[in-house]
Specification:
The chain has about 100 residues and is mostly beta strands. It is globular and about 40 Å long. InterPro entries: Rieske-like_NirD, Rieske_2Fe-2S, Rieske_2Fe-2S_sf.
Length: about 100
């Protein structure tokens, strides 16, 4: 696996996301409260809704995104659906260095 620079942090809206593509897969890179950054496959584990278009809330380990199609909450730190829902969106490691967002692919 290798680290890939995504963009400067300020190019991702606070409580929003930016989509990058890698080998035909869409990856949503989220910016939560406190400028914490997370990345998940841009598909809800329920019916594949675009998580990048969901509402981001919380910070740190409690950050989550709400799927815009059916309201499922997905933990950004793990990709796991929040109870009572079940399922997982693929999670990608991220890091923030010198104001730049990096994604491990």
């Amino acid at each position: 696996m290798a680290w890939q620079k995504v963009c400067p942090l300020e190019e991702i809206p606070l409580l929003g996301a930016r989509v990058v593509e890698h080998r035909g897969e869409r990856i949503a890179v989220f910016r939560a409260e406190g400028d914490t950054v997370f990345a998940l496959r841009d598909a809800c584990p329920h019916l594949g809704g675009p998580l990048s278009q969901g509402i981001v809330s919380g910070s740190g380990e409690n950050a989550r995104v709400t799927c815009p199609l059916h309201g499922w909450n997905i933990g950004l730190a793990s990709g796991e659906a929040c109870a009572p829902d079940e399922g997982c969106a693929r999670h990608y490691p991220t890091r923030l260095a010198s104001g730049e967002v990096w994604l491990e692919l």
